[in-house]
Specification:
Strand content: 15-25%
Bound molecules: pantoate
Number of strands: 9
Shape: globular
Structural class: alpha/beta
Helix content: 25-40%
Number of domains: 2
CATH topology of the largest domain: Rossmann fold
Radius of gyration: 19 Å
Number of helices: 11
Strand order of the largest sheet: 1-4-3-2-5-6
Length: about 280
C-alpha cells in the first residue's frame, strides 16, 4: 500500500490509475481506524478498482478544543489495518496541505435547517467544518464514489447537500453502521470507555431498537420522552437528544404516517465520552 503526505505525489498516483482506466473509491477518516472504517474500505473495493483512505484530524470541525486534543491518534496501527484490508493508498495530508495559506477554507455552504438540529444544535459550527474539509478532500482526490457510514447519519445528509450545492461529479454511498457484539455502534471514541461503560453503552442501541419495535400511529413523541428518561436514569449517562426525524429534512416526525423515510437518532454522553447512533425505522 502507498502512503502519501503530499498532494502532488497523490495526484501522480491517481493520474496513473485513471490513465489505466481504473475507478477510484474514497473513504475520508480522521484515523483511529476500527472495523467500521474497514467495512467502508471493503465496500469501496467491491465497487471500485482503487480504494483511497484519507487520515486527517480536521481542526475546523471541533467546536470543543478539548475534544480535538483528546482525539485518538494511532497512525502506525491505522496504516497497518489499511494495508491488511487491501486499501491501495492512504493520504495523510498536513494542515497547510488541506488549508493552504491565503486560500481560505473553501466555499461558505448554507444548509438551512439541516445543520440546525440534533448535532448542529449541540455542536455549533461542526458541520461547517465537515463540509469544508470533505469538499476540499473531494477536490484533491476527485474520486468516482465516496463511502460514508450511516452512524453519522446527519453528516451524510450534510455531505450529500454539499455535493449537490457544489455540483461535484461524485456518488455518495451510505454504508450500514458496524456494531460491536453487544450492539454498540463502533466509533473511534469507544476506546475511551471503560470495560463497564462499554457494555452498559449497549443500552443506547437497545433504546433505538425499542422505539423501532414500538413505533406505530402518532406515539413517536411519547417514545422519545420515555427513551430520554430511561437514558437519564442510567448512572453516568447524559443524553443530549433522542429524536425521531424525517430522513431527508431531519425535521421531527410525530407519526410514522408523516414520512416515507423515518430515522431515530440519539446523542448521549457516557462518562466523558459522547456517543451518537441512529436506526432507520421506516424506509
Ligand atoms: O466522520 C469523520 O471521521 C469526519 O467527520 C470526516 C468525514 C472524515 C471529515 O473530517
Amino acid at each position: 500500500m502507498w502512503a502519501f503526505h503530499r498532494l502532488s505525489t497523490l495526484k501522480d498516483f491517481l493520474n496513473r490509475q485513471r490513465a489505466e482506466g481504473r475507478s477510484i473509491g474514497f473513504v475520508p477518516t480522521m484515523g483511529a481506524l476500527h472495523e467500521g472504517h474497514l467495512s467502508l474500505i471493503r465496500r469501496s473495493k467491491d465497487a471500485q478498482e482503487v480504494a483511497i483512505c484519507s487520515i486527517f484530524v480536521n481542526p475546523t470541525q471541533f467546536n470543543d478544543p478539548t475534544d480535538l486534543l483528546k482525539y485518538p491518534r494511532t497512525e502506525a496501527e491505522d496504516l497497518y489495518l489499511l494495508h491488511q484490508t487491501g486499501c491501495a493508498a492512504a493520504f495523510l495530508p498536513s494542515e497547510p496541505e488541506v488549508y493552504p495559506a491565503g486560500q481560505g477554507v473553501g466555499p461558505d455552504f448554507r444548509f438551512g435547517v439541516l445543520d440546525k438540529t440534533m448535532e448542529g444544535e449541540f455542536r455549533p459550527g461542526h458541520f461547517k467544518g465537515v463540509a469544508q474539509v470533505v469538499h476540499r478532500l473531494l477536490q484533491m482526490v476527485e474520486p468516482d464514489s465516496i463511502y460514508m457510514g450511516q452512524k453519522d447519519f446527519q453528516q451524510v445528509a450534510i455531505v450529500r447537500e454539499m455535493i449537490k450545492q457544489a455540483n461535484l461529479p461524485v456518488r455518495l454511498v451510505m454504508c450500514p453502521t458496524a456494531r460491536e457484539e453487544n450492539g454498540l455502534a463502533m466509533s473511534s471514541r469507544n476506546v475511551r470507555l471503560s470495560g463497564a461503560q462499554r457494555s452498559r453503552a449497549a443500552l443506547i442501541y437497545e433504546m433505538l431498537q425499542d422505539v423501532r419495535a414500538r413505533a406505530h400511529g402518532d406515539n413517536l413523541p411519547a417514545l422519545e420522552v420515555e427513551a430520554l428518561q430511561r437514558l437519564r436514569g442510567e448512572p453516568g449517562f447524559r443524553p443530549e437528544y433522542f429524536s425521531v426525524v424525517d430522513g431527508k429534512t431531519l425535521q421531527p416526525v410525530r407519526s410514522l404516517a408523516d414520512s416515507d423515510y423515518v430515522v431515530v437518532c440519539v446523542a448521549c454522553w457516557v462518562g466523558d465520552v459522547r456517543l451518537i447512533d441512529n436506526l432507520i425505522i421506516k424506509e
